[in-house]
Amino acid sequence: MPKVVFESWSEGLTAVSFVMLQKEMLGIDLKEAKTNLDNLLDDVQIILEIDDENLAKEFLQKADKLGVNFRFVK
To answer: Dihedral of CA 15/20/23/24: which sign?
Structure first.
């Protein structure tokens, strides 16, 4: 199962969009998505396991555009 490690964020991160992206694409509830955002802003790494590799790649493309820095681990 592919893992996504969110490591940091770039200036201009669109925080609300990152929360919504997690909800819409990964089915993460609002509270968990907001916690992930808060952890990211506090420089705490977030590790998400995504069942579908294609979904993970699509999610990462969109997260990258929002200003999230990550690495993909198969």
So the answer is: negative
